[in-house]
Amino acid sequence: MRVVYVLPLVMILLLGVFSILQLEKVGSGGGVDKLPSVLIDRPVPDFDLPPIQGRDQGWGSKDLLGQVTLVNIFGSWCVACQQEHPYLVTIKSRDLVKIYGIDWREKTPEAGPAWLKRYGDPYHRVGDDPKSHAAIAFGVTGAPESFIVDKKGVIRHKHTGPITPEVWAKELWPVIQQLKKEKVE
Amino acid sequence: MRPTLIAAALLAALPFAQAWAVEPHEILKDPTLEARAREVGKQLRCVVCQNQAIDDSNAELAGDMRVLVRERIQAGDSNQQVIDYMVDRYGDYVLLDPPFKARTLVLWIGPGVIALLGLGWLASYFRRREGVGGQTVVAAGEQVQPLSDEERRRLDQLMKDENA
């Protein structure tokens, strides 16, 4: 019979249902645009960053070994970084995990240090990355992005977007606690 | 008149409007190396844009990626090594042409299969289709029987009645 005539209607309905489901997914935080990091379960790429202006220590991939760390890519130009920043300061004040910062693509050398002075400094170390060397090594597409690195220097988790108290409690802290228990032989 | 002239001028200029975003200070002195960098740059996706090569994008990250491509080429990497370096970090997504492998099989042959299915359906649909007024439309390959003398006479009679 004329199934053909109702077929477009059925297809539109299916499309609608699919769209709504995807919207729900985005609404609940699981964005469809998120790229999976190919770096999960692989060692931190080799790099060495100079310190930001006014400091004497930068950091490189070797500094991460022997401890569970949180690597955070930020920039003074990045609005979402400002949003997560107070919570990073809280993490530091509670001494939950050492945060290694990558100050990404500052227009001027003063911009990063000035920003940290104004909003607080949650980082154990900060490296200056004006030309995206470390950012590309980490496969970063935007800021903020954060990586949890285990004691052997292997990337175990990636979070795109700001770290909110909720993200921390549900997503990051459980992974960090788990990794802290792992033994390095 | 004026708008026509402007339109014509714009149209004439179109072939020259190549959208290179490569900045002058990025360009390597060695033309062969630079040519290789362009070759690589055309194949790499700007990861903060939707569908642009890093060579065509004005995004800052694309610029940094172009510079990195040149650094690696100058350091002696082959084109493939540079591309592998990027794929290592960003995954296949960084390639403008997705590679042909098991995971992307559907992506590559899917449209062809769907088109074939559609054509098959169309063919069978037309073969079975009934024409206007219940007359069967003759399908390709079907034998057409000429009218017999008796049928022809009847047809002539009917036509005559119609015209009368």
Overview of the structural elements:
The complex is a heterodimer of chains A (185) and B (164). Chain A is an alpha/beta fold and 185 residues long. Chain A contains 5 helices and 7 strands. Chain A has a 5-stranded mixed beta sheet with strand order 5-4-3-6-7. A two-stranded antiparallel sheet of chain A has the order 1-2. In chain A, strand 3 (69-74), helix 2 and strand 4 form a beta-alpha-beta unit. Chain B folds into 2 domains: 2-98, Orthogonal Bundle (Helicase, Ruva Protein, domain 3), CATH 1.10.8.640; 100-131. Chain B is 55% helix and 0% strand. Chain B has 6 helices and no strands. Chain B has helices spanning 2-13, 31-43, 60-74, 79-90, 105-128, 149-163. In chain B, helix 2 packs across helix 3 and helix 2 (31-43) packs parallel to helix 4 (79-90). Chain B is elongated and about 90 Å long. The model of chain B has no long low-confidence stretch (mean pLDDT 83). Classes of the chains: A alpha/beta (185), B mainly alpha (164). The A-B interface holds A 35-39, 45, 105, 131-133, 135-139, 141-142 and B 47-48, 60-61, 64-65, 67-68, 86-91, 93.
Could you outline the blueprint of secondary structure elements for this entry?
The complex is a heterodimer of chains A (185) and B (164).
Chain A: H1 3-27, E1 48-49, E2 59-60, E3 69-74, H2 79-93, E4 98-104, H3 111-119, E5 125-129, H4 133-137, E6 145-149, E7 155-160, H5 165-181
Parallel strand pairs in A: 3-4, 4-5
Antiparallel strand pairs in A: 1-2, 3-6, 6-7
Chain B: H1 2-13, H2 31-43, H3 60-74, H4 79-90, H5 105-128, H6 149-163
Helix pairs in contact in B: 2-3, 2-4
